[in-house]
């Protein structure tokens, strides 16, 4: 029997990381605005390509809780990770086909920096748990 987590997204442990990722993506877009508007737009797209799959993953991952939900938690982790990969690839394809970004450096720099923030964000989540 799986127990569903009814916590809103802003109470999930990963919410801090998602907010920081969003702020970094916006900050990078503003930083690339000094170069030109197109670079800023491409940087924003790169940040969103990294952020949106992570939001999907967080929602899938924290769907269940409790020891009796171990199988459901494992399945939701796996489907969340696969969905994250598929969504990332689909977003890259969509951007390259529909928008045709002209500043690939801004797109990929922003993507990789927001991705690195998600990896470093694990340290934030670890420190947010209280020790008993």
Structure, explained:
The protein has 132 residues and is mainly alpha-helical. Helices cover 74% and strands 3% of the residues. It is built from 4 helices and 2 strands; from the N terminus they run βααβαα. It has helices at 15-32, 37-61, 70-99, 104-128; strands at residues 3-4, 64-65. The protein has a two-stranded antiparallel ribbon with strand order 1-2. Helix 2 (37-61) runs parallel beside helix 4 (104-128). The two termini are 28 Å apart.
Helix/strand structural class: mainly alpha
Estimate the strand proportion.
under 5%
What profile does the largest beta sheet have? Answer: 2 strands, antiparallel
| Biggest sheet, spatial arrangement of strands | 1-2
The termini sit apart by 28 Å
User: What ranges have pLDDT less than 50 throughout 5 or more consecutive residues?
Assistant: none
Shape: elongated
Number of DSSP helical runs: 4
The helicity comes to: over 70%
- Rounded mean pLDDT is 84
Total strands: the figure is 2
């Amino acid at each position: 029997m799986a127990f569903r987590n009814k916590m809103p997204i802003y109470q999930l442990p990963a919410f801090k990381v998602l907010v920081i990722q969003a702020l970094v993506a916006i900050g990078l877009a503003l930083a690339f605005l000094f170069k030109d508007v197109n670079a800023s737009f491409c940087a924003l797209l790169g940040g969103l390509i990294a952020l949106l799959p992570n939001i999907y993953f967080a929602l899938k991952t924290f769907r269940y809780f409790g020891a009796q939900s171990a199988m459901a938690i494992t399945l939701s982790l796996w489907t969340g990770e696969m969905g994250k990969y598929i969504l990332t690839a689909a977003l890259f394809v969509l951007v390259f086909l529909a928008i045709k970004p002209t500043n690939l450096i801004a797109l990929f720099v922003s993507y990789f920096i927001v991705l690195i923030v998600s990896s470093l964000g694990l340290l934030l989540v670890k420190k947010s748990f209280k020790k008993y």
